[in-house]
Specification:
The chain has helices at about 1-35, 40-45, 50-60. The chain is mainly α. It is elongated.
Length: about 60
Amino acid sequence: MRASALALGLGLTAGVLGLPASAHAQSAIQQWQRQMDPAGHAHILGNYDDAEDHYRAALDLV
């Protein structure tokens, strides 16, 4: 009984310690997506027609 309580305690501690790292990774991914321009994002996703539309719209602004 004591060993299982210890294992449970260690598991919960590891889970709590792992959570901030996971949340930080999501923040970095979300930050990267916010910084990416719409054309680049569409291109990476394989939406080439959408990417071309974004590139053409950007050229019209220049």
